[in-house]
Design goal:
With about 525 residues, the protein is an alpha/beta fold. Helices cover about 40% and strands about 15% of the residues. The strands form two sheets. Strands 1, 2, 3, 4, 5, 6 and 13 form a seven-stranded mixed beta sheet that branches. A six-stranded mixed beta sheet has the order 7-8-9-10-11-12, covered by helices on one side. Strand 4 and strand 5 form a beta hairpin. Helix 7 runs antiparallel to helix 17. The longest helix is centred in the first third of the chain and has 25 residues. The radius of gyration is 24 Å and the shape is elongated. The model has no long low-confidence stretch (mean pLDDT about 90).
């Protein structure tokens, strides 16, 4: 079967066949995500999506309803394949939450697919013949993805632009126009093969969009290679970091009766020699433990603070995640503590961007009254901090703490006007086992650093813990699902990137210019 015949059969597909094709194409698109990183796969899947939207013209409302249904099936496949690992969290306490697993695994992709449905419908509304429809699809789906990243507290996880971040040389373009610019480019580039089957009355050179896309990818690769070669990693003098990855099982991590067992594990790992010449923690200036490290409120356990003080030599600082009690007994904060060698708390950061259903319930009191609770089982849910902020820390540059998925929000994670020397991400991906989730989370943290030109220090309970330079290069890392320590110097930041200075304005201008081109084409036909 020739490409043209295959494409025409996709264009003409209807009913359940159209739904299956869209679902399969969406699911296959997730192959471009970490850890598989088969980034050329969307050249096939987004071309299929384009042909399906071509065929939607036979439906009502100018094909918008049919396009929306197609977009929903595509999105459902993409998010189901990319977010299946969410179900692992419901198995941590299977007796309490196991019954919710199939609901969560299906409901989250189904809800997120509504944004893809909107994008496909919007694309159909501005659709035109020829190569301009590729831009129409890129405009509409980028708008839909931006909305997904902002509405209802936002969830930009696995935005389509991440398909272009597997190769580090391509990911460097995030320093120019950020995730949303990458998303626009990714959709336009990956959908370009759809024009290969166009009638020559609509497209005189049907191969030209694909050739232009390959030129764009080459240009991105050259820019990335030059940027990486021209910017060697440099380090902050006198800072010696130690990241402790305890790999504590989730059922033990939140079990108060295991508190001393957990503390013993932390203390022993933290003071472990890292090599023949190592003297343990006495070589370290800053010790870092992961998110919500303790199965208790740290400030209400003086013996734990005493053990920390005994562990830390003079001049060594501990930065750790911990749950902090609020004034109300019904609430708590997911916090980061900076602790001196004598056990005194120097500063505290409270997580701002909380995870719905994980750290709080929408309509908390109502749903709790029905017997439901969030996965962390904090009665009343967590409270959010007031804003992201940087902190001064002894012996190191000013840093920005971000807890768990706070780091996935482009343009929001790093506050404007408070540029730090480095970003600290404490997380606990142990909820999601050995799955794609922690790899995707780590990739998104890397991309934030490329966008901002800042180094990343990431401590995770079960991994992936790592130190990353401002260009996304991994200096050192610990693999997923292992315990250990990681000793590393602290990379220095680089000058603010184009994206750090201009934000999403470059992507916005590109969308506006593309929209004008599409409208001009529509008026001519």
């Amino acid at each position: 079967m020739t490409l043209t015949r295959l494409a025409h059969s996709i264009v003409l597909a209807w009913g359940w066949q159209r739904a299956v094709i869209a679902f399969a194409a969406g699911a296959a698109s997730a192959l471009a995500l970490a850890p598989i990183d088969l980034w050329p796969a969307p050249f096939v899947t987004f071309a299929i999506l384009t042909w399906l939207i071509d065929g939607a013209a036979a439906g009502r409302w100018g094909g918008m309803l049919a396009a929306a249904a197609t977009g929903w099936c595509f999105g459902f496949g993409y998010f189901l394949a990319g977010l299946y690992w969410v179900g692992y969290a419901f198995l941590v306490d299977a007796q309490t939450f196991g019954w919710l697993l199939p609901i969560a695994v299906l409901a989250l992709p189904a809800g997120l697919a509504l944004f893809t449905a909107f994008g496909a419908a919007l694309a159909r509304a501005i659709w035109t013949r020829g190569p301009a429809r590729i831009l129409a699809l890129a405009i509409a789906l980028t708008i839909a993805e931006w909305l997904r990243g902002h509405l209802l507290s936002g969830f930009p996880w696995n935005a389509f632009g991440y398909a272009l971040t597997g190769p580090l040389v391509l990911a460097q373009s995030a320093s120019l126009f950020g995730l949303w610019g990458l998303t626009f480019l990714a959709i336009a580039v990956f959908a370009s093969p759809a024009t290969l089957i166009d009638d020559r009355t609509d497209t005189r050179r049907p191969w030209l969009p694909l050739m232009c896309s390959l030129v764009i990818l080459c240009a991105m690769g050259i820019y990335g290679a030059v940027r990486l070669a021209a910017t060697p990693t440099s380090f902050v003098s006198g800072v010696r970091l130690r990241l402790m990855q305890p790999n504590v099982p989730q059922d033990q991590k939140f079990n108060y009766s295991a508190k001393q067992q957990v503390m013993n594990r932390y203390l022993a790992l933290s003071d472990r020699a890292s090599g023949p010449q190592s003297t343990g923690i006495r070589d370290v200036t800053h010790l870092i433990w992961p998110e919500s490290a303790f199965p208790f409120f740290l400030t209400r356990e003086p013996d734990a603070l005493a053990q920390i003080a005994e562990l830390l030599p003079p001049g060594t600082i501990l930065i750790t995640g911990a749950v902090r009690p609020a004034q109300s007994e019904r609430h708590a904060y997911n916090s980061v503590y900076v602790i001196d060698h004598d056990g005194s708390i120097l500063s505290i950061y409270d997580k701002v961007h909380l995870v719905p259903f994980g750290e709080y319930l929408p309509l908390q009191n109502f749903l709790e009254g029905m017997g439901l609770m969030q996965l962390t089982k904090v009665v009343g849910g967590f409270l959010s901090g007031d804003r992201h902020r940087t902190f001064v820390i002894p012996g190191a540059p000013r840093f920005l703490p971000l807890v768990c998925y706070e780091i996935i929000f482009p343009g929001e994670a790093v506050p404007r006007g408070e540029r730090p020397g480095w970003v600290l991400n404490l997380t606990n991906d142990g909820w999601f086992g050995i799955s794609s989730g922690p790899y995707q989370h780590f990739r998104q943290a890397q991309v934030r650093m490329i966008e901002e030109g800042l180094p990343l220090v990431r401590a995770a309970n079960t991994g992936i813990s790592a130190v990353v330079d401002p260009l996304g290069r991994i200096i050192k890392s610990l693999p997923l699902g292992t315990e250990g320590i990681l000793d590393s110097p602290l990379p220095q930041p680089i000058e603010p990137t184009v994206y750090a200075r201009t934000g999403d304005s470059t992507a916005g201008l590109a969308l506006a210019a593309a929209f004008l081109l599409v409208m001009r084409r529509r008026m001519r036909t």
